[in-house]
Design goal:
Blueprint: E1 5-10, H1 16-27, E2 30-33, H2 34-47, E3 51-52, E4 55-56, H3 58-64, E5 70-75, E6 80-85, E7 88-89, H4 97-107, H5 110-123, E8 129-133, H6 136-140, E9 146-151, H7 154-167, H8 174-190, E10 203-206, H9 212-229
Parallel strand pairs: 1-8, 1-9, 2-8, 9-10
Antiparallel strand pairs: 3-4, 5-6, 6-7
Helix pairs in contact: 2-4, 2-5, 4-8, 7-8
Bound molecules: 2'-deoxycytidine-5'-monophosphate (DC).
2'-deoxycytidine-5'-monophosphate binds near residues 34, 38, 107, 133 and 134.
C-alpha cells in the first residue's frame, strides 16, 4: 500500500496532536509533534538563561543552536514518541505554561526554524508520517498528499488547555491560559518567517462542536479517500 504524508496545521490547542496520534496509530505511521521541537529549543533557552519575561538574548541562542540535539523515542506504555533534548527526556518539562509563554518568540527566529524544518524533512522523507504544527503543509511538506487545517474558538481551546494543565497538577487560572492562547495565535500568524496560514489546498476542520470520535472518523475518511487516490 502506498504511504502518504499527512500534514496537520492549525492554531494552538486545536487538538492536532490528539487526532494525529490516533491516525498514526491506526495506519502504523510515524507521528511527529513539531511543536515539541520548538518547545525543546525554548526549554534549552530557559535553562541557559537566554530568555526570561524581560529579555531574550537571540544572538546567544542562535550561537548555541549547533549544540542542541532533539530526538524522539517511542514510549510503548504511552503509545507515542517522547521528546529528548541532548539525550534527556523533557516531555513533561516542555508542557508548562511558562514554556508556552516564550515558545512563540523562539519559533519566530529564522535560524531556529531553518534547523528544525531540516530535521523535520529528514524525519518525513520516506512518507508514512503524520506531522502536526503550523507550517507543515506550507513549508515543511508543501507536496503532502493530505493537508488539514484545524480550528476551534479561542475559548474552546483555552478550556481544553486549562483542563490539561489542571489534570497534571499545575496551578493556573483560566484567564492566563486564554490570554496565552490569544497571544500565541497573534505572534504565530503575524511573524515574518513561515507564519501560520492555511495552505490553499488544505481542508478546514472546525472541531468546536465535534466529539473526539466524530473528529477521528471524519479525518480517517479523508485519509482513506486520499490513499485510494494515490494507489
Ligand atoms: O503545537 P504547540 O502548541 O506545542 O506549539 C508550540 C509553539 O511552537 C507554537 O506556539 C508555535 C510554534 N510552532 C511553530 O512555529 N511551527 C511549528 N511547525 C510548530 C510549532
Amino acid at each position: 500500500m502506498n504511504k502518504i504524508t499527512i500534514a496537520i496545521d492549525g492554531f494552538s490547542s486545536t487538538g492536532k496532536s490528539t487526532v494525529a496520534k490516533q491516525i498514526a496509530k491506526h495506519l502504523g505511521y510515524v507521528y511527529v509533534d513539531t511543536g515539541a521541537m520548538y518547545r525543546a529549543v525554548t526549554f534549552y533557552a530557559m535553562q541557559n538563561g537566554f530568555i526570561n519575561p524581560d529579555d531574550f538574548n537571540v544572538e546567544a541562542l542562535v550561537y548555541h543552536l549547533p549544540q542542541i540535539e532533539i530526538s524522539f523515542k517511542f514510549n510503548d506504555a504511552l503509545g507515542f514518541a517522547e521528546v529528548y533534548l541532548n539525550g534527556k527526556n523533557i516531555e513533561k518539562d516542555i508542557r508548562t505554561l511558562e514554556v508556552s509563554s516564550f515558545v512563540s518568540k523562539v519559533a519566530a527566529i529564522s535560524e531556529v526554524r531553518h534547523k528544525l524544518v531540516e530535521q523535520q524533512q529528514r524525519m518525513g522523507k520516506d512518507k508514512g508520517v503524520v506531522m502536526d504544527g503550523r507550517d507543515i503543509g506550507t513549508v515543511v511538506f508543501p507536496e503532502a498528499e493530505l493537508k488539514l487545517f484545524m480550528t476551534a474558538s479561542a475559548e474552546t481551546r483555552a478550556e481544553r488547555r486549562y483542563q490539561e494543565l489542571i489534570e497534571r497538577g499545575d496551578k493556573v487560572d483560566y484567564e492566563a491560559v486564554l490570554n496565552n492562547v490569544k497571544e500565541r495565535d497573534h505572534i504565530d500568524s503575524t511573524r515574518k518567517d513561515s507564519p501560520l496560514v492555511k495552505a490553499k489546498d488544505a481542508i478546514d476542520i472546525d472541531n468546536s462542536n465535534m466529539t473526539l470520535d466524530e473528529q477521528f472518523n471524519k479525518i480517517l475518511q479523508l485519509v482513506n479517500m486520499t490513499i485510494e487516490d494515490y494507489e
